[in-house]
Design a protein that fits this description.
This protein is of the alpha/beta class. It contains 21 helices and 22 strands. The longest helix is centred in the first third of the chain and has 26 residues.
Length: 635
């Protein structure tokens, strides 16, 4: 959210400390401020100082005060409601809410002999319950106005790490952190809720209650750094449900890190997601033109092969078609095959004569229009497409090719090409049973993550390969029994040593040396199913294929099976497998890793494709095809 001088903010605990500093910093940006606190004298002083800071933006032009003070005990619901009502009455809405009010317990927990009503219970009411109450009220106001908004809750390092000196303060702040991070889904409505955790001098706090202990983080965050962090959470559209740690020594640090976030995915019940999405996307404007990506020349360099064009939206649509607004498109390593004719037959000249092509193998979105003959689909229905040019803001699709889904979320995109490939290839290509040893190559990638989990759910031992430590940790969290980091260990040597009798199944997507190592490790009756060969995707068109002398003899003598797999040939079982994965996901049995790197708009697709081939991605890479939508839902 860009800070503008006509916006308004409500700050609890605004009369002193962090709250005071933030009120004045907001006022210096020309933002109208409501100072909420129990101290009348200090609160009115901050409101007066805020008005002075605001003069340079609003001198003589306002019919209302640029800052006001409202006396309020945030532990009392009636007073909180009155404070928010007063703010809206004066400023007409609410853009920013910052909940800073907090207290420490007045009596050390180990010495408290009371019922807690005036000590620890009161601290929980102020530090946690009031934050929930204020956040709820702020969100309701923002929802009613149908405008973007930001809520920042004040946490603490004591909410991230135990605080022996004040366990009530620590636990209440921990509650604030988890409460805030659990509200990331409100990004669907353009509302971002974040938590700011300044480092406090825990050793100094400990002295006040009689504890002595070694404290390695004794410094306190500077106020300037804290204000910088707060403004970052307000203005950075990519932050929702984020926890920003403010340290005096380290500056600004998001917790958990992106790699930690990627390996600890939160499962959102599908029914709830459908409820949220149906509210947000039931209506939107149909444009006269839209942006889409086309392949205008054949090349393995995806950026060279493609360009963005503005396409007129032809109305009315065909009677048996629907217009789908694409929200998220999935990115695949095989996109470079499509841009270089790898999936088409014929000479280069013959294929080039058919250009342009429309890339983007998968996407999810919302049905924007339906043709007169379409009876089974409605406008506003979340839907998915496969193999139909998803790198576009809108696409016209035959109604029988539409796949209704629970919601237009990235997790659903990941289940399409990547999830379906893993699920169907393991069943149809590898004929997977239970009690077997399954090797998954490139296991931390978009499809590998599904193969690992589906093999484990079927009762198998899973060996996963990857290329760095973060990916190895990610795979262990998914349940892999053995992870081989090929940059630290030889895949060939590990398989030979630890599985002397061979492995039963290899789910292979790399090719080259990786294929050789895995193929040679197959047990009698072993099956290797090839779903790709990413190590060869960057080679030029016409490169000679690798030779495998003696392969026919090996397959024959040891009853081994080498199977190829292409998802397009199995469309008749897509729905069954997709329904199964959605069920596993909604019941918490299947995790879906979405790479945290953000790509927005048609123009970012080439960046996303190159990012996949950099080897840095973990899980599924997606592109949000609508920049305005991403401003509302950015992660």
């Amino acid at each position: 959210m860009e800070l503008k001088s006509n916006q308004s903010a409500l700050v609890t605990g605004g009369a002193s400390g962090i709250g005071r500093a933030l009120c004045l910093a907001l006022a210096k940006k020309g933002i109208f401020v409501t100072v909420v606190d129990t101290s009348v004298e200090k609160g009115e002083e901050v409101a007066s100082l805020s008005q002075k800071e605001n003069l340079k933006f609003h001198s003589g032009s306002l019919k209302f005060p640029s800052a006001i003070f409202v006396k309020c005990d945030v532990s009392k619901q009636g007073e909180v409601a009155a404070a928010f009502e007063k703010h809206v009455e004066v400023y007409g809405g609410l853009d920013i809410c910052i909940n800073c009010a907090d207290i420490e317990t007045s009596v050390p927990f180990h010495e408290d002999e009371t019922d807690g009503s005036k000590t620890w219970r009161h601290a929980v009411d102020v530090n946690l319950v009031a934050v929930i109450d204020c956040t709820h009220k702020a969100i309701k106001i923002m929802e009613a106005a149908k405008k973007p908004g930001v809520v920042i809750n004040l946490g603490s390092t004591s909410g991230l790490y135990p605080m022996i000196s004040d366990p009530i303060y620590s636990s209440s702040k921990g509650g604030v952190v988890m409460f805030t991070r659990s509200l990331s889904f409100y990004k669907e409505k353009g509302i971002r809720v974040n938590v700011l955790c300044p480092e406090i001098n825990r050793a100094e706090k400990a002295k006040h209650v009689g504890f002595q202990f070694l404290n390695l983080n004794a410094s306190s965050a500077s106020m300037d750094t804290l204000i910088q962090g707060a403004f970052q959470l307000i203005t950075d559209e990519s932050k929702a449900g984020s926890c920003l740690l403010i340290t005096n020594n380290g500056g600004l640090e998001y917790m958990p890190t992106s790699s930690q976030e990627a390996k600890n995915m939160t499962v959102i019940p599908s029914g709830f997601k459908k409820t949220v999405s149906s509210v947000v996307h039931s209506t939107f404007e149909i444009p006269q033109t839209f942006e889409q990506l086309i392949i205008h020349t054949l090349s393995r360099n995806f950026r060279i092969a493609t360009r963005m064009v503005h396409t007129p939206l032809k109305l009315p649509i065909k009677p048996d078609h629907v217009l789908l607004k694409i929200i998220y498109a999935g990115v695949n390593a095989g996109d470079v095959n499509y841009s270089s004719n790898g999936y088409l037959s014929g000479t280069i000249e013959e294929i080039s004569s058919k250009l342009p092509f429309y890339p983007g193998l998968e996407g999810v979105g919302i049905i924007a229009l339906v043709g007169d003959e379409v009876k089974n689909l409605k406008v506003g229905t979340p839907a998915a497409i496969l193999n139909i040019g998803a790198y576009s803001e809108f696409t016209m699709v035959q109604s029988d090719l539409i796949i209704p889904v629970e919601s237009p979320y990235p997790e659903v995109v990941a289940m399409l090409v990547s999830g379906l490939t893993a699920s169907i290839a393991l069943e149809k290509g590898a004929h997977m049973e239970s009690g077997e040893t399954v090797v998954v190559t490139a296991a931390a990638g978009a499809t590998g993550q599904f193969a690992v989990q589906l093999a484990k759910l079927a009762g198998n031992k899973v060996v996963a390969t990857c290329g760095d430590k973060d990916k190895a940790t990610f795979l262990k969290d998914l349940g892999a029994d053995r992870v081989i980091n090929y940059k630290e260990e030889s895949v060939k040597d590990v398989l030979k040593k630890e599985f002397p009798n061979g492995v039963d199944i290899v789910y292979e997507s790399v090719g080259g040396d990786m294929f050789d190592s895995c193929f040679n490790s197959l047990a009698t009756f072993g099956r290797i199913v090839v779903i790709g060969m990413t190590s060869k995707y960057n080679e030029e068109i016409g490169t000679a294929p690798r030779n495998y002398p003696g392969m026919c003899g090996i397959l024959h003598q040891q009853s081994k099976t080498l199977a190829g797999f292409n998802l397009a040939h199995y469309h008749h079982v897509w729905k069954r497998h997709l329904d199964n994965m959605i069920h596993l996901f909604s019941t918490g049995k299947l995790k879906v890793g979405i790479d945290p790197k953000i790509f927005v708009g048609v123009e970012s697709v080439a960046d996303a494709v190159e990012y996949i081939h950099s080897g840095k991605s973990i899980g599924k890479v997606v592109v949000c095809m609508d920049p305005s939508f991403n401003q509302q839902v950015a992660n």
